[in-house]
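How a chain folds remains the central question behind the approach discussed here. For one protein, we set the task of working out the structure tokens from the amino acid sequence alone. The sequence in question and its structure tokens are set out directly beneath this paragraph.

_____
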Amino acid sequence: MGTLKEMLSSSERIVFLTGAGVSVPSGIPDYRSKNGLYTGRKNPEYLLSATCLREEPDVFYAFVRDNMYYPDAKPNAIHEKMAEIERRDGKQVTVVTQNIDGLHGLAGSRNVVEFHGSLYRCHCQKCGATVRAEQYLESDKHAECGGGIIRPDVVLYEEGLPEDAINGALHAVTQADLIVIVGTSFKVSPFCNLTDYRKKGSAVFAVNQELLRLPFPFTMIQDDAVSVFKEL
């Protein structure tokens, strides 16, 4: 097996599996690290649960509005290089991301499977209307239908994953010549199970500051992902 740069050059179908560490260099905190979103909070999973949204919508809204949105964040070298590989080399590239910040799309990636949804798509739970994120950040009450509660289209604790996201991710992984795991501990199911469906002979690389231990042969690049992707 060659280097990551060589494999990217020789592979026609590439899948990037990305996690929160990809967006940290853009100023968006991850969840469980020392300076992550969950640090110092009591039962943070509850604040991002379907129960909290249903029973304490004001508590849910305040937490999401004040802690989850980074509208000024810009794509970094990782997002940009993934999009560039698709544009420059004409590869069939799919990004399957756990991130809900929309930065892969902003960077220009055309085939993005947002496994857990996006903060920048919202809808009213009462009338079903699509609502702009900018409107949601002003109020979670949908005035147009008499005050229905608006929510972002993200997967909360206690909710299942969208079927189209699962199908899109599986289709990409089963076709891939090369799978590159970036910026994730790769421990959260079912995201970490996607590689179980890789085709025979596909190569797997992981780029992460934390050492990953996977139950199959792969190449580990234990380094800062920004530095690695700048060199590709």
In short: The longest helix spans residues 77-89. The mean pLDDT is 94. DSSP finds nine helices and ten strands in the chain. The beta strands are 13-18, 92-97, 112-114, 117-124, 130-131, 141-142, 148-154, 178-182, 203-207, 219-221.
